[in-house]
Design goal:
The protein is mostly helical and about 280 residues long. It has one domain. It has ten helices and no strands. The longest helix is centred in the middle third of the chain and has 31 residues. The two termini are about 20 Å apart. The mean pLDDT is about 95. It binds zinc ion (2 copies). The site of one zinc ion has 5 residues, from loops. One of its GO terms (cellular component) is endoplasmic reticulum membrane. One of its GO terms (biological process) is sterol biosynthetic process.
């Protein structure tokens, strides 16, 4: 991997995020949590909502910007969905967006609650995780998420499920950040929520709730970044080995096939589904 100051800063920034995230949670962490299930569901919901809002607001500002630096980072040479505002597709996207966001809120709470009913051994006490513990556990969560996402995504590309379910997400031929979670409810459960929640549930008492919240923040940021339509030089995912990034997923939307993984590239490589261009 070629050395550059931007790569070093970008990768360092990821670990700084782990450290600052952990410190912020530690400062406000309650001494005793009686209602663990309620705390689990509400904190997961808020970690996602806050990250989703901040990251989308950032990309929204980028889409509004006339800056040459920002426009040069655009991946596809196609117009954004709103260029040509009279287009019926864009009007339909806008109409469906808020409905989709609203439905997703209920689904997310439902899946988090269901997961906590199946198994909830996660640590909520003062045995706070180290940055090392957060790092290796997030790697494990990412591997589990990626395997579940890859195979559910392949299933969603079979003719039956594509037509009935996955076509909704692929309405965005050129992606924008908020298209990341624009999906049929079945896809949102199968491809987005279950893969993310499975790692924390499987690791059980080995993992602390702070690690889970830091992971949810990162996973939300990654999917929005991967759908942003931009490849900024500071985006860390392009510098991590075997890791997917915005260009990788942008090709998937552009061609409607290949590059099925969400986090790592090795499954596409092993199973011959990487887009080679
Ligand atoms: Zn797809
Ligand atoms: Zn997508």
């Amino acid at each position: 991997m070629e050395f550059s100051i931007m790569k070093v800063c970008s990768i360092t920034g990821l670990f700084v995020y782990f450290f600052i995230g952990k410190q912020c949670f530690m400062w406000v962490w309650p001494d005793k949590i009686e209602e663990k299930q309620c705390f689990f569901v509400v904190s997961l919901y808020l970690a996602h909502l806050i990250t989703y809002t901040i990251v989308n607001a950032f990309y929204f500002a980028c889409y509004q910007s006339k800056s040459k630096y920002i426009s040069q980072a655009k991946i596809e040479q196609k117009p954004w969905p709103w260029d040509g505002k009279e287009s019926k597709v864009w009007q339909e996207m806008k109409r469906l967006f808020w409905k989709n966001v609203l439905i997703n809120q209920f689904i997310m709470v439902g899946v988090a609650y269901a997961a906590s009913c199946i198994k909830l051994d996660t640590r909520f006490d003062q045995s706070f995780p180290t940055v090392f513990e957060i790092s290796w556990q997030i790697m494990v969560f990412g591997i589990i998420e990626d395997v579940l996402f890859y195979f559910s995504h392949r299933l969603l590309h079979t003719p039956y499920f594509y037509g009935k379910v996955h076509k909704v997400h692929h309405i965005y031929n050129i992606t924008v950040s908020w298209s990341a979670e624009f999906a049929h409810p079945l896809e949102y459960i199968l491809g987005n929520l279950i893969p993310v929640i499975s790692g924390p549930i499987l690791l059980g008492s080995q993992t602390h709730m702070i690690t889970v919240l830091v992971f949810v923040g990162l996973a939300t940021h990654k999917t929005l970044s991967d759908h942003s339509g931009f490849n900024f030089e500071w985006d860390v995912y392009q510098y991590l080995p075997l890791t997917t990034h915005s260009e990788f997923h942008s090709k998937h939307h552009s061609l409607n096939t290949g590059n099925y993984s969400s986090t790592f590239t090795y499954l596409d490589d092993l199973l011959g589904t990487t887009i080679k261009k």
